[in-house]
Amino acid sequence: MTATKDWKIALITMDSIDQHWVTLNEGAQAEAKALGVTVSFMSPNTKDDAQQIECVNNAVAGGYEAIIVAANGPDAISSALKEAASTGVKIVYVDSPANVEAEATFSTDNEAAGKTAGDEMIKALEAAGITSGKIGIVNVNAATDSTVKREAGFRSAFEGKGYELMETQYGEGDAAKSQTIAENYITQGVVGIFGCNEGSTTGTGNAIKASGKTDIVGVGFDKSDAIMNLINDGYLLCTMAQNPDVMGKEGVKAAVRALEGEELGGAVSDTGVSVLKKN
Prior knowledge:
Layout: E1 8-12, H1 19-35, E2 38-41, H2 49-61, E3 66-69, H3 78-86, E4 90-94, E5 104-107, H4 110-127, E6 133-139, H5 145-157, E7 163-165, E8 169-170, H6 175-187, E9 190-195, H7 198-211, E10 217-221, H8 225-232, E11 238-242, H9 244-259, E12 267-270, E13 273-276
Parallel strand pairs: 1-2, 1-3, 3-4, 4-5, 5-12, 6-7, 6-8, 6-9, 9-10, 10-11
Antiparallel strand pairs: 11-13
Helix pairs in contact: 1-9, 4-5, 6-7, 7-8
């Protein structure tokens, strides 16, 4: 498939810094080149609702015909997206949807992946003879659809087990804030910590490394060089790696198909996850 014209498509992710979003953009740009359309990466530099709303408004003002978006929260940018859609702009979600109808969504089955993360932690703890103890959870915030579902899946893995899941703490996806949270969990004697995204996972691994306690099981989400180094050095057990490049590619394909007049019916596609462990 090639496009009948050079459609203008905006790609708006939660930020422009996490390796996850950089990889998603790379996938989108490769597909844009193949199809002969223009994709502009216009993401905020930090996870901020106001900045994300501004990006959506700028895309509409700039005459973009489709917006591919990873919503920072399900409600915050909804009115901006509704306004965009009312002007005829096509909306496609990648990674995290908002509560506004879209042409299509491409994301990880976050609840299932979160449960897998919990299962991996339980297996490692039981293998070490640990069948009870406190578990800490470092999440981004209480609103982002993807990470809320990961936490729900993770917690479900522990139902009926002898562990105590502590109250979730939020680090806004910032590695330094997440490290402080994880360090607080470690002082409370946890046996495991789950990081719900790239920054949370990096912070968790760095806290375990700084504590010198190699018996704490750290499990995370997303893939980056820092996370892979923490896994290979033994400070994290594993991470749930998403496929952001697939999200980017499929997002562009769907946007073009919608712009060419195809009805996609709001289909939700699972872009998969892999468990990455020590090499």
